[in-house]
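Researcher: I'm preparing a figure for a lab meeting and need a structural model of a single chain. I don't have an experimental structure, so a prediction will have to do for now. The sequence is pasted below. Please return the structure as tokens so I can convert it later.
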Amino acid sequence: MKINKNMSSLPLLLRFWCYFFVLCFHTPHRVLSEPLSSQQNATFFSTPPRGWNSYDSFCWTVSEEEFLQNAELVSQKLHPYGYEYVVVDYLWYRRKVPGAYVDSLGFDVIDEWGRLVPDPGRWPSSKDGKGFTEVAEKVHSMGLKFGIHIMRGISTQAFNANTPILDTTTGRAYEEGGRIWHAKDIGMVERACAWMTHGFMAVNTKLGASKAFLRSLYEQYASWGVDFVKNDCVFGDDLDIDEITVVSEVLRELDRPILYSLSPGTSVTLSMAKQVTGLVNMYRITGDDWDTWDDVAAHFNVARDFAAANMIGAAGQSGKSWPDLDMLPLGWLTDPGSNDGPHRQCKLTLDEQRTQMTLWAMTKSPLMFGGDLRNLDSTTYSLITNPTVLEINAFSTNNMEFSFVSGSGSTRSGYGAYTQSGYDRNAGMSDARFFALASCNDPKAKGWSDEAILGNGFQQVCWKEKSPAFCLNKRKPQWASGEDMMHSDGKDQLLASTNMEMCLGASPKQKLTAKELKRGSVSQCRIHANQLWKLNDNRTLINSYSGQCGIMRRVEDDVPSSGIRFWVATGQQAEVYVAFFNLNNRKTVISVKLSDLAKVLPGRHINASCQCSEVWSGKSYGLTGDAVSWEVEVHGTALFVLKCNPAKQNHPQ
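Model: Understood. Here is the structure written out token by token.
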């Protein structure tokens, strides 16, 4: 057990209580004893997780020294404000040498069982099979919790090496059916991660060897002292509900809580989220969020929908689950996909940063700061530690977008989109449609049918729910000699035109940011489950990669946010939180009537006697008239706290 060296500077009596607490309540992490009871589980993850993640500032290149420097600063500056997790994002196992990059092959460090281990060049304490044990111990000694990012299934490098599978119950290679199982027995090449095809592939979870492999991974993470796992390329367009289910089962059997997070969230729907919410603790609901206004604005529609569906704080794995709007790319950052560390300031204006912080708080999204804390400026620090914002994020209730609001000069702009009818600058106001994915259980997904062979030799699958029909040409997969055809029975590739070389995929070949609305991905035809589709008898068109079904949506249902938005929530001490958001490109006066606010929050006694303060300006005043009104800056926000004590309704102060 280690005691934080900073304790030595504390007053003697306070130091005594700190040591007493640690001695009484500290227990080393264990892996394979009795699982936690359901009553114990219920106490975990009861508020949105909060912490720091290395991705926005280091991409994949962070070193042990850089990570621990940031962890120390989290402990000193952010932990008093509830930030408790420090997370190493992806590719911590990749050697940082010439030729290595995000989707390179052959640069990863694996053990004899095909499991990824930290690159000892960047993580020197991992040598001699220690993994992240020493890093986790140092993080824990700071009073923090340690997290890592992992990808789907098994690495291509382990698959190519055909490493044996570890059976953790025996400590030997996994045996079943009279033989030893290896990586090539469980890996599914045709289900490689669509945006990291050289890196990782799904495993066939119907096999006992696959479950043994996944179990060996997570038991190893637990033995290292990991408290948080971010599982990537298993959700959204890359949905792998079978792997998520197996991993959740493994985590529940451990005797210590590990927070389970899913990523990315491209094209996530409510029906998809409802499949996983009970299995996890947080899950992304958009593509990657970077420091552009369009990325921030793209979160408003999806945040509204998930709040309205009561997904915020729903029952989750070992506690609650939280829709995740992604990390906060504020402060000192790097660039997406970069091989370089932090080298630039956040591009958002201060008003846009306040808008992001306010929306993340009002929606109770997890708060994972992404900037390099070694170069943390005072403005960013005050933004991410604002006590009212953090109170709303952790403890508010009745969080919702509210429609009874007006704004002078409010507009709704059109956005361009690739649609059935081509590029339409005013698509948001038209009846144009685009190809998207939805749960196959969604009744709206039942609209596809086979059409007769055309004169040019093609057969088509068509969406005919609305005239004119939207049709895609079909062809059978062109298998090369020796390729495995077991996963393509009855499935076709779909061609966007008569061009035999370009096929429709469900997931894009690169990660998308929140602002990039996916309209289906057309790329060179290849044998990959992403490009294999099957028309079911119930008229759904299912994709083999994600198990989701194709659907035609109206563009206006999915355009980026614009105009003005208004959110409300309630506090622990009868406060009413009111947030105005101006998504326009000019200042806008936004108003809401108190009578309308009272309708959406009955029993809160909202009237002109309430005391009101605006968080970002620091102004406090009593309400006058029958409305709350504020001139909001371009892309800005106003956040009000209304205190309406029923006992003082007739005696305003």
